[in-house]
Amino acid sequence: MAKKSGIGQYFELGFLTSELILKNLSFILFMGFLAVIYIANSRFAEKNIRQIQQVQRDLRELRWQYMTLESENMYNSRQSELAEQLKDENFEAFGTQPKRIVVQDKNDY
Questions:
Q1: CA distances from 88 to 18, 73, 80, 83 (A)
Q2: What is the mean pLDDT of residues 66-94?
C-alpha cells in the first residue's frame, strides 16, 4: 500500500496509532483530570449559589416576621391597649396625670 501524502493522511484511522496515543497518554490523562476538576468546580459553585439564594429567602422572611412582631409589640404596649387588657383582670388605670416635681434651685437639696 502506498502512503497518502498531504492532508488526506490525517483523516485516515491509521493516523491515530497506538504509538501516538501511548506517547501522549500522560497529556491525555492530565487533560481528563483538568476536565473533572472543571466539572466539579462548576457543580460546587452552582450548589453555593443555590444555598446563598435560599439563605437570602430565609433572611427576607425572617425580616418580615421581625417587623410584624415589632409592630404588634408597639401596638400592644400603648397605654390605651394596656388599660384595655388590664380591665379584663379587674385592674384600673389611674385617671390622673403623673405629678411633676420641679426644683427651683439646685442648692435647696
A1: 94, 19, 13, 9
A2: 81
